[in-house]
Structure formats: structure tokens, C-alpha cells
Amino acid sequence: MLLRDRLNEEMKGAMRARDEVRLSAIRLVRSTVKNREIEVKHELSDQEITEVVSTLVKQRRESIRLFSEAGRTDLVEKEERELALLLEFLPQQLTREEVEALVVAAIAESGAQGARDMGKVMKVLMPRVAGKADGSMISTLVKEKLA
After folding, report:
1. Correct CATH for 96-146 of 1.10.443.10, 1.10.3300.10, 1.10.10.10, 1.10.10.410
2. What is the three-class DSSP state of 85?
3. By three-state DSSP, how is residue 91 classified?
4. CATH of domain 3-87
5. R_g of the chain computed on alpha carbons
6. Distance CA 35, CA 30 (A)
7. What gap in Å lies between CA 95 and CA 85, rounded to an integer?
8. Of 16, 51, 107, 139, which is least packed with CB atoms within 10 Å of its CB?
9. pTM of this prediction?
10. Residue 72: what are its φ and ψ, rounded to 5°?
11. How far apart are CA 109 and CA 91, in angstroms?
């Protein structure tokens, strides 16, 4: 099933169940996808929709961090619920160990020698982990392995 169709079905299910939080999160995704389609002037593929959802997940994580620092537990809880719902629309997330193994393989494949070759490694690595792992974790692991 296409991700677009899945979003539509999940939205209908949330409406029937009167699940306002789920409905709100799904509408946010659909709205963001629609805005992106208008921007790029074509219908988004599943991969592009996954990128949109990944961006929304990244925004939620940053919001959670900022709200936690400000002591706004009510907003942290709301963002965490939305984050959990958004993660359902992403591919299965890779563990740190799995990402680490992919980083090592990408370093070997790209022939990287040090920190200045990080771009080479990322070019090889990103197609393999896009939407499946947090970008900051990937970047940190690459830096650690190249150091």
C-alpha cells in the first residue's frame, strides 16, 4: 500500500474512532505533503513523503528538547504523542549498532581517511539510511569513526 493511501485510511480510521490527537497529526502530515507538492509542482513519491515525515519527526524532537528545557511538561507530552504517531509512518528505525555497522561499511567503501572525507562517507551512507535513522546520530557516528 502506498504511503499516501495509508495516510488517507488512517485519517478515516481516526475520524471514526474520534481520536483527535491522531487525526490532528495525520492532517498535519497530509497538509505538509500537499504544501510540498505545490512547491515542487508534482505529486510526491513514497520516498519524498517519507522525507517530509522525517522532517516533521525532527521538528518534534527539537520541540521536545526545547520544551523540556523550559519546564513545559504539558507541551512535552503533546509533542511526544505526535512524535509517536509520526514514527508509525516511517520505515522501521535502525538501531545504533546497525547504523554503526553501515557507517563502517561506508567508510571502507568510500576509502575515507579522516574527518575531511566526511562528505564522501555521507554520500555513500545516506541513501542506505534515509528515513531509517536520525541524521544527528548518523553524523555523530561518522565523526567518531573518522577521528
Report:
1. 1.10.10.410
2. helix
3. coil
4. 1.10.1510.10
5. 18
6. 9
7. 19
8. 16
9. 0.74
10. -95, 75
11. 25
Whole-number Å distance between alpha carbons of 68 and 92? 26
How far does the chain reach from its first CA to its final CA, in angstroms?
Answer: 42
For 90-136, how does the pLDDT look when each residue is reduced to its tens digit (9 = 90+)? 888 888 888 888 888 888 888 878 788 888 888 888 888 877 887 78
C-alpha cell belonging to residue 38: 505545490
Burial degree of 133 (CB within 10 A; 0-12, 13-18, 19+) = buried
For 115, the grid coordinates are 574527518
* Percentage, residues of the chain above pLDDT 90: 37
- The Cβ of residue 78 has, within 10 Å, a number of other Cβ atoms equal to 17
The residue extents of the domains of the chain are: 3-87, 96-146
Residue 48: name the closest of 9, 79, 3 by CA: 3
**6-63 residue pLDDT tens:** 999 999 999 999 999 899 999 999 999 999 999 999 998 888 888 898 889 889 999 9
